[in-house]
Specification:
Order of helices and strands: HHHH
Largest sheet: none
Shape: flat
Number of strands: 0
Number of helices: 4
Distance between the termini: 39 Å
Helix content: over 70%
């Protein structure tokens, strides 16, 4: 169901607008994390911003190659795993 919603959002507003929205949501997450560290935001507020960014990232998987993203993601997780050993 989410995939259909994301596809409709992209069809309605277009790639460029949704890329702008991704930037905006990332900026809001950064601000929320900064506010949390200063005691001016709650973990719930940060979680809400994480959810917004995740929604936009899921939309971007429809814009860009989700297979490429998945491959790069797995590669980077393996690098992290190696660093933790």
């Amino acid at each position: 169901m989410s995939r259909e919603v994301f596809k409709k959002a992209l069809d309605t507003w277009g790639k460029d607008v949704q890329l702008n929205m991704l930037q905006e949501e990332c900026a809001e997450l950064i601000a929320a994390v900064n506010h949390l560290r200063r005691g001016r935001a709650t973990e719930a507020e940060v979680c809400a911003e994480i959810a917004d960014v995740q929604i936009m990232l899921d939309q971007m998987k429809l814009v860009f190659s989700s297979e490429d993203i998945e491959g790069i993601y797995n590669f980077k997780v393996s690098i992290l795993k190696g660093r933790l050993k």
